[in-house]
Amino acid sequence: MASLVLSSHSNCNYHLRSLLSVTRSINPTKIYAKRVTVAASSAIVGRKLRAAVIGGGPAGSSAAAALASGGVETFLIERDINNAKPCGGAIPLCMLDEFDIPMEIVDRRVSQMKVVSPSNLVVDFGKTLKPHEFIAMCRREVLDAFLRSRAERSGASVISALVTHFDVPENSDQPYTVHYAAAGRRAHLDVDVLIGADGVNSKVAKAIGAGDYSCAIAFQERIRLPEEKMKYYENMAEMYVGRDVSPDFYAWVFPKCDHVAVGTGTVCSKRDIKSFQRAIRHRARDKIEGGKVVKVEAHPIPEHPRPVRVRHRAALVGDAAGYVTKCSGEGIYFAAKSGKMCGEGIARASEGGTKMVEERDLRREYLKEWDSKYKSTFVFLDLLQRVFYGSDAAREALVELCGDEYVQKMTFDSYLYKKLAAGNPWEDAKLVANTVGSLMRCSVMGRDVLKV
Predict the structure, then answer these.
(1) Sheet containing 292-302: which strands, arranged edge to edge?
(2) Contact of 117 with 283, CB cutoff 8 Å
């Protein structure tokens, strides 16, 4: 539940300009058009293994950094280096350490959260957080620029270009050919390995026949609040549940540098997304009144992994692979982690870029490792969504349970550190009983949703 949750920095705009200036310094006209011959033998003579990563978000940048650091000749291709993806922007504490994220790019340190039920029952969620614990809130344009710059410093060649199509090899003697347009010119790049980190509408996934998946849509408005209103959200995030704001997901108010992100999402009723957005603005109206909308954003979110995530010498990571959790909608950490695991796996299998890799290498070093580590997490959160997001009575029960300090401790311990929290058998038994009791009580008694 904490993954639904999402100290201000007065010089946040300075950090944004600095990071973006580093990214803009990349020469977008640098075209890699030289055709090469991919060796069919296990050993590569006279060059390094060559990889192209399509997409420069957390997944692609982390994959490129791991590949380049591991000795693979790496090309990171991003369509729009100034893109600001619609996103809640919450990242767990462990990601700051694991990916060496500097505090300068963290807009807010959320240590308080309110969960609001359909009947406007409010629960404070975060009472068990220790003084040093918080959820980091970032703007994606800042985080993504930082990770891309790191990939370039690691040795990856960053190309600002639109990928148009791919030539997929018919046998092991042929390369993947990436066709793209940059600075008004068309070019191509031949590589041994292809990584798709290009989001829900992945061209890599289509090229390798990875299959389709169901998608939610997220709609978000960035609203700049008056200073006195913004003080309330200094380290506070809010989550709202109810059929009025989403029939199968939740709505949020998350603090950023100088504004709040107010949004919602749905799978089953995409055409009604604007009415759900009006509803969350209505539910939060007293706290966001007087704010100015500075940006409106919408973006698809995968609902489950693709049928195929590895084929031949191509792999999918992040949203392209479908690594967004149900119930919480968390995707940033899993995107970066999948990219890192995939890049490191390829570097290992190629022995520092000196040997060719095959599909079995990608499956062994990346896919098997990923599934063993995270598959159960995705299955469990899928189950939670089915149980608690099916009706307003179930949502009321969910909010009731969020008031339990044991629930909060277990949730935050698991979310912040991405490790299974060690539970207490007696408390676990009580939690099961309380869950059943809350579901039965809310189903039988119900709660009249306030007509406000």
Answers:
(1) 122-124, 112-116, 236-240, 251-255, 260-266, 215-224, 292-302
(2) no
Q: What is the Cα–Cα distance from 233 to 253, expressed in whole angstroms? A: 9
Tokens for 153?
Answer: 């410093």
CATH number of the structural domain 46-101+140-212+306-389: 3.50.50.60
> Cα(80)–Cα(345) distance, rounded to whole angstroms?
27
Residue 322's pLDDT is what?
95
Mean pLDDT score across all residues of the chain: 85
Q: Give the CB-side neighbour count of residue 280, counting CA atoms within 13 A.
A: 31
Q: Six-digit token pair at 112?
A: 């308080």
pLDDT digits (tens, 9 = 90+) for 18-56: 444 434 434 443 333 444 444 434 788 789 999 999 999
C-alpha to C-alpha distance for 200 and 301, rounded to whole angstroms = 7
Predicted TM-score (pTM) of this structure: 0.85
Q: How far is CA 209 from CA 168, 254, 312, in A?
A: 11, 37, 11
414-421 average pLDDT score: 76
First-residue to last-residue Cα distance in the chain: 26
pLDDT higher than 70, residue 421: no
Query: CA 121 to CA 254: how far, in whole Å?
Result: 19
Domain segments of the chain as ranges: 46-101+140-212+306-389, 390-450
